[in-house]
Every structure is written in C-alpha cells, then in structure tokens.
Amino acid sequence: MTTGSPESRKAATERYLTLLKSGGNDHPMTQLKKAGVDLTQRATVQAVVDQLDALVSRMEGEAAKFAR
Q1: pLDDT-based confidence at 22, cuts 50/70/90?
Q2: What string of H, E and C letters represents the secondary structure of 17-56?
Q3: Are 51 and 67 contacting, i.e. CB atoms less than 8 angstroms apart?
Q4: Please, which residues have CB within 8 angstroms of residue 37's CB and are 6 or more apart in sequence?
Q5: Whole-structure pTM value
Q6: What does each C-alpha distance from 39 to 2, 42, 65 come to in angstroms?
C-alpha cells in the first residue's frame, strides 16, 4: 500500500529510520510527531485502522486458499 511520489516515500523512509535510530529517547508521541505521524489527529488514527483492516482482509483471503 504505497502511495505518493518516490520522493515523498523516500522522505517518509528517512523519517522512519530516524525514529528507529532515536532508540526511545523521548516520549513515544513526541517521537512519532518528529517522524511526521500525529496520532492525536483522528484522520491519522483512521488511516492506520483502514490500513490494518485492508491487511487483515488480505490475510483472510490468503488463508482461505489454504482451507480448500
């Protein structure tokens, strides 16, 4: 589920790597905001829920192939 231009994906990857490198040196919500993720916003949380829903649906579809 990748969206956006290659440049925006690269920038997001860099922010994520910076978050991982920080090693938990600050409050998690502060670290996420620095990485460009604001979980205090309803739209952000909804985007996470929607993505997880799509992944679960995909997993269910794959699991159904094995149940045959």
Answers
A1: confident
A2: HHHHHHCCCCCHHHHHHHCCCCCCCHHHHHHHHHHHHHHH
A3: no
A4: 44
A5: 0.65
A6: 20, 7, 35
